[in-house]
Amino acid sequence: MAYNNKETYTREQIEEIKAWYDAHQAELPKEIELCQGEVCKDLPKMVGAVLATAEEQFNNPTFKRLLQYLFDVRQKIEGQA
Questions:
Q1: What are the DUF6965 domain coordinates in residue numbering (predicted)?
Q2: CA gap 68, 2 in Å, rounded
Q3: H or E element, residue 49
């Protein structure tokens, strides 16, 4: 999964990813392996926490990698469909 640490997210990007999760909430798996050795055991809880952070910190580079998880998870789920 590609990661660019130079650019922060826009409010529009966060609104778009939030809308995607809202639309797919019932389909989220409980657990997901993003890559070898990186497993999220409670995906709905993690997504909720990261979305709450994203609303306030979308343009803060300190939180860039944390917010990237939202996009990584979506990519992984869409790739499995």
A1: 12-79
A2: 9
A3: helix 43-57
CB-based burial, 22-53: b 16+ in 10 Å, e otherwise? eeeeeeeeeebeeeeeeebeebeebbeebbee
The whole-model pTM stands at 0.84
Distance CA 1, CA 24 (A): 21
- Asked if residue 42 is part of any domain, the answer here is yes
Q: Indicate the number of domains in the chain.
A: 1
Q: Is residue 26 part of a domain?
A: yes
Q: What is the pLDDT of residues 23-79, one digit of tens each?
A: 999 989 999 998 888 899 999 999 999 999 999 999 999 999 999 999 999 999 998
Q: What is the pLDDT of residue 8?
A: 87
- Report yes or no on 23 lying in a domain: yes
Range of the domain at 72: 11-80
User: Has residue 5 got a pLDDT over 80?
Assistant: no
